[in-house]
Design goal:
The chain folds into two domains: about 50-75 and about 105-300, 3-Layer(aba) Sandwich (UDP-N-acetylmuramoyl-L-alanine:D-glutamate ligase); about 310-440, Protein-Tyrosine Phosphatase, Chain A, CATH 3.90.190. Strands 2-3-1-4-5-6-9-10-11 form a nine-stranded mixed β-sheet, with helices on both faces. Strands 12-13-17-14-15-16 form a six-stranded mixed β-sheet, with helices on both faces. The chain has 14 helices and 17 strands. The chain is of the alpha/beta class and about 450 residues long. About 35% of the residues lie in helices and about 20% in strands. It has helices at about 5-20, 30-35, 40-45, 60-75, 90-95, 115-120, 140, 145-155, 270-285, 290-300, 325-335, 385-395, 410-420, 430-440; strands at about 50-55, 80, 105-110, 125-130, 165, 180-185, 215-225, 225-230, 245-250, 255-260, 265, 310-315, 315-325, 345-350, 375-380, 405, 425-430. The relative contact order is 0.10. Helix 1 (about 5-20) runs antiparallel to helix 2 and helix 4 (about 60-75) crosses helix 10. Strand 2 (about 80), helix 5 and strand 3 (about 105-110) form a beta-alpha-beta unit.
Length: about 450
């Protein structure tokens, strides 16, 4: 490590220590400071690490957490950016924060924002890229899904030796001819359906064949544009899967049980989308020579992470805090809520800052109409764009007389304490979630930071 990098490392580590021991927070400033001193400091910090980059629209944080939990079973300490700060400065901070250990292998599992894959790859030497999915998300920032994938492949092309572990059920991930070794994972729930031939519902995103631009068909569709796809026009089809989920055994908002290979797996979280995240982590773990038993143990013990069905106890309520940021992710959360067997109250928080995407029209693509409204005993609407969300729910059929609407987080929490149900689900965009957690920390409901 050269002098410039050493100075950057010392300054970054010192600022991290001060922020976390004195101010109790800070996930990106230490990295920003270190990069200002040496823009290439990540290259020095990441030297000698096996780098796994996890990217895609939805599921990056949970997939990263599950991979880390699994690899720790066999290799001990694993470096990761667990705060979810997934741009360059946040990744640099993760290396600065990491304490040197006696791990059996020096492994770093990095959640990386789709638009930052190229910049990060220029500074490290990835061994693996894990690709979760690509859906429309923050159109003002990412553009169409093909533009997003171009950003990702621009990074992958810089590391042709790295293995790609990709969701084979997403037609876009096998559409580009890359020289990298490839491993695909996906769902094979019902082999008797392989002769079926049907299209996705109207307005499903990303269902044009990447080769000939005709509408792709499915033998089996899991959700959105994910499934066993094929093009009847040109013959393009899902690649051969190395790892697959073969049966979903049970689904509730609190637990998922499913079969991969010949073994049952359990994760203590809801949503079909999280089975995909677990499958991606399983694929990585198997590539790192973990046994099915080691993987199953890590999944069963995995803790919920920041904003991803994070459980919070407050005023005798069980709060489930869930990040939502695009139509597909929102719909999958709404589908998960319909697996709830008890009455609950619903809180929706909508912001439209840069980190959320400034265009809120995506809430109209979410199928709030599909919710089983008789189970929802109270609705609270908040966030800076509370009026937009209030109107969206009213159009979906919710009774405005049973809705409390406020932009004030203190009032939101006061109203949460008064709801008639034990369970409360809070669906929130990113900056609204950060703001609410800050209010919760000030009220001593949770600890500060992430």
């Amino acid at each position: 490590m050269n002098l410039k990098a050493n100075i950057a490392k010392i300054a970054g580590k010192s600022s991290y220590w001060f922020l976390h021991n004195v101010l109790k927070g800070g996930t990106s400033f230490p990295g920003k400071l270190a990069m200002k001193i040496d823009p290439n400091v990540l290259n020095a910090l990441a030297k000698d690490y096996e780098i796994i980059i996890v990217t895609g629209t939805n599921g990056k944080t949970m997939t990263t957490a599950l991979i880390v939990a699994a690899l720790k079973q066999k290799y001990g300490d694993v470096l990761t950016n667990s705060s979810g700060s997934n741009m360059q400065q946040g990744i640099v901070t993760a290396f600065l924060a990491h304490q040197n250990s006696q791990a059996k292998r020096k492994i770093a599992v990095l959640e990386v924002d789709e638009a930052n894959v190229k910049m990060v790859t220029e500074l490290v030497h990835p061994s693996y890229y894990v690709l979760t999915n690509i859906f429309r998300d923050q159109m003002d920032r990412y553009g169409e899904i093909y533009t997003t994938y171009d950003k990702i492949t621009a990074g992958i092309r810089l590391a042709p030796q790295a293995t790609i572990i990709a969701n084979g059920d997403a037609s876009i991930f096998s559409s580009v001819d890359l020289p990298n070794p490839k491993v695909f994972y996906g769902f094979n729930l019902d082999k008797s359906q392989q002769s079926q031939d049907f299209k996705a519902p109207v307005n499903t995103d990303g269902v044009l064949c990447p080769q000939c631009n005709q509408v792709i068909h499915f033998h089996e569709r899991i959700y959105a544009n994910l499934g066993n796809f094929f093009c009847p026009n040109c013959g393009y089809q899902r690649p051969k899967l190395k790892y697959s989920v073969t049966q979903i055994l049970n689904q509730t908002p609190d637990k998922l049980e499913f079969l991969m290979g010949q073994k049952d797996y359990t994760i203590n979280i809801g949503g079909t989308y999280n089975i995909y995240n677990a499958l991606a982590a399983y694929a990585v773990a198997r590539e790192f020579d973990l046994s099915d038993e080691e993987i199953a143990q890590s999944f069963a013990a995995n803790k919920r992470v920041f904003g991803r069905q994070e459980l919070i106890n407050y005023a005798d309520k069980k709060i489930n805090l869930i990040l939502v940021k695009n139509p597909v992710g929102l719909d999958e959360v709404l589908h998960m809520l319909n697996t709830e067997s008890e009455a609950y109250s619903l809180v929706t928080l909508l912001n439209a800052n840069h980190a959320d995407g400034i265009d809120t029209s995506w809430i109209w693509d979410g199928q709030f109409e599909d919710l089983q409204q008789d189970q929802i005993k109270k609705v609270i609407v908040g966030g800076e764009r509370y009026q937009d969300m209030h109107f969206r729910l009213e159009v979906a059929g919710f009774d405005p007389n049973n809705m409390v609407t406020t932009a004030n987080n203190d009032e939101v929490m006061t109203e949460v304490a008064k709801v008639p149900t034990k369970k409360v689900y809070i669906l929130s965009t990113y900056t609204a979630l950060l703001s609410l957690r800050k209010t919760m920390a000030e009220k001593k409901i949770i600890k500060g930071g992430m």
